[in-house]
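## Example record

The block below lists the input lines for one assembly entry, exactly as stored, with component labels intact.
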Amino acid sequence: MKRTKVKELLNSTAYGAEIKLQGWVRTFRNNQFIAVNDGSTINNIQAVVDFQNTDEATLKRLTTGAAISIIGELIESMGKGQKVEVKVKTLEILGDSDAEIFPLQPKKHSLEFLREIAHLRFRTNTFNAVFKVRHALAFAVHQFFNEKGFVYLHTPIITASDAEGAGEMFRVTSLDFDNPPRDEAGKVDFKQDFFGKSTNLTVSGQLEGELAAMALGEIYTFGPTFRAENSNTTRHLAEFWMIEPEVAFNDLEDNAALAEGLLQYVIQYALENCADELEFLNNRLLEEEKSKPMDERSEMDLLTKLRFASTSDFERLTYTEAIEILKNSTPNKKKKFKYLIEHWGADLQSEHERYLVEKHFKKPVILTDYPKDIKSFYMRLNDDGKTVRAMDILFPGIGEIIGGSQREERLDYLEKRMDEMHIPKDELYWYLDTRRFGTAPHAGFGLGFERLVLFVTGMTNIRDVIPFPRAPKTAEF
RNA sequence: UCCUUCUUAGCUCAGUUGGUUAGAGCAUCUGACUGUUAAUCAGAGGGUCGCUGGUUCAAGUCCAGCAGAAGGAGCCA
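Predicted structure tokens for the full assembly:
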């Protein structure tokens, strides 16, 4: 007999039907009511055991976490609290779960504790919901680009270039650490390494993405990226997933429109396809807010925030305009900012971005045209000679969720920038070839997938939206 | 990496100016009850107070170092 999923059973009205139910015990109440969960939904189904005619030793084994298989009759529930339940005919314990040592209990656990038992936290409602939403968002990303005719491009995980300079990299080698081969100068001889050169884990697929975009037109990547930065924050990971579209003939305005469209599409998709999960996460947050003082509570609940973000236009302004707003802002005048805004050219700190998004505009913000000195070499120089066609998208509670730009397509300008920033041109000959042969305007951006999942689930620590987080001193499981 | 705070039972937390045998709720175990909704009621067990050293007649409590965690900052996605 084939099993029926809990999700299906809960929506069924086929009373009297014989069904097979398999799942894990969440709670066993009153010696007769088993709350069974099989992961198909965060909701449980109640299975009722005839305890007077069931072996006592079997009943004792119905502990939280045990895997069970039930054949029974789907009936209209006699109790309140649920429409349907399963009247147990035969009950088999597939796998015991020793209640004395199983760490999950039918009670609330702290996220910090669950992080320490990440191999078991899938079994909680919160993480069931989080990873369902994560899946839905990933699926929606592919659907969005597919509908638009983009090509999903797989860029390499192992790379020889650290060209973007996006941060510290993890070295990849098969050399013997205790006794590496040395060259005449006494340095490690990577010519004898697996690839015949020094290699690293990728920090971005952008440069390779540009190569493909200059032929396929519209591409996107969606893969893991690695940064060996010693970042200990609630929004950084050493291993994270990034979505990087790159589009030929797009300028910065097209780029911003694409980014806004993508974000609104995937949030909308989650709202439509993860209603139960988002409602659960919404209630979870509301509970949490109750313990906070009034002035720290958020103005919108999670669902309202998501509906708002997916329907209202993002605020667009230039760096120069943002500086003006910040200069004249109350916290700047009253010297409440840790870093006061005094002159054009200063990098924006988290507190400034947060002020713009959460206090001034109260909506997602697209900031463009930053000073060239605080941005990467490949961004297109504006006619003013001091700003570049960069854009950051800032989200409330998250900060920077997207960073992108229109790329510098003029070979002479690009080479000049690379010289100024000491980027080795010979190593990047293949990148420069796109500008040598049939160069064209193009633009793209990088979307941090986990930051997106953070925003949509309302979780606050990035380590809680990826199954097995990788961060400094953190590589368990 | 820097700043701040924290580390007491399986989990969440109390623990006064340093002072007898370190407490509670939940969980677990035993029993009762049997249409319960994180069931309820009664009872029981459960501790190297993060680690190392120091001050003191006396340290969970004070001091130092180390380790780990949380929040914030920087780097960024």
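The mean pLDDT of chain A is 93. The domain at 6-107 of chain A is CATH 2.40.50.140 (OB fold (Dihydrolipoamide Acetyltransferase, E2P)).
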